[in-house]
Amino acid sequence: MDPSWGLGTKVTRSVSNDRDYSWYVDQMTTGRNDIKNCGPSVVAMASKWQDKNSTLKTRDIVDKYIPEGTSFAGVYQYTLYTWLKENNVIISSISEITEESLISELDKGNILIVGLDMKDIKYNPNTTQRVGEYFDFSMVYGKVSHYVIVKGYKEVDNTMYFETYDPFSASQTYSDGQIIGKDRYYASDEFIKAICEYKEYSSSYTDWTDVIVIKETK
């Protein structure tokens, strides 16, 4: 592992449930509502991850479920669950939010969709590193709910990190040219807290705040 990523040097265990084809979506390239399209974007990514032949696009989801001219401030997790089911993505869910529960699903070859309160993820201004938040959401927006794909984890120098596809890249890249939201790592303690804060906030509006599991079907 490249030390410039900022995670450390000694990897003691890791899982990466990636694919050998492209399935990442940068929400800021998705057209209408792009700034708020993290939900539709993770649904499109999940569909492509599960089925290489999926043609479901973020724009298809937006056009189908969010009529033009409709006020759109984002969606709750249960809505994502419904969209996934309606588009034939095989899923389940887990209500227990712990490091161990997430790792258990990743160890099975699955990936996850999680909602985060981004104020709990520390901003990292070092643009050569791949750990921490790369955009200071809390400074600009205050409290921000956001969805990401969790596709793996790394335990490095006794610290656990979750490996994500974060759709908010806005075409920014690392120095090697890879888009900045791909293979972004978030420290487990911050990540779990961010999920729990999201759950507490969203439970004021809906009684369904479980983590969504996208099943490995190969």
Number of domain modules: 1
Low-confidence stretches: none
CATH first level: Alpha Beta
Rough outline: globular
Strand content of the residues, in percent?
A: 15-25%
CATH homologous superfamily designation = Cysteine proteinases
CATH topology: Cathepsin B, Chain A
Structural class: alpha+beta
CATH architecture: Alpha-Beta Complex
The ordered string of helix (H) and strand (E) elements is EHHHEHEHEEEHE
Task: Give the tags.
single chain; 218 residues; alpha+beta; Cathepsin B, Chain A; seven-stranded antiparallel β-sheet; 6 helices
Explain briefly what this protein structure is.
The chain is an alpha+beta fold. The protein contains six helices and seven strands.
Describe the structure.
There is one protein chain. The chain has 218 residues and is of the alpha+beta class. It has a single domain, classed as Cathepsin B, Chain A (Alpha-Beta Complex), CATH 3.90.70. Helices cover 28% and strands 21% of the residues. Strands 1, 2, 3, 4, 5, 6 and 7 form a 7-stranded antiparallel beta sheet that branches. α1 (38-50) packs across α2 and α1 runs parallel beside α3. The two termini are 28 Å apart. The relative contact order is 0.23. The mean pLDDT is 92.
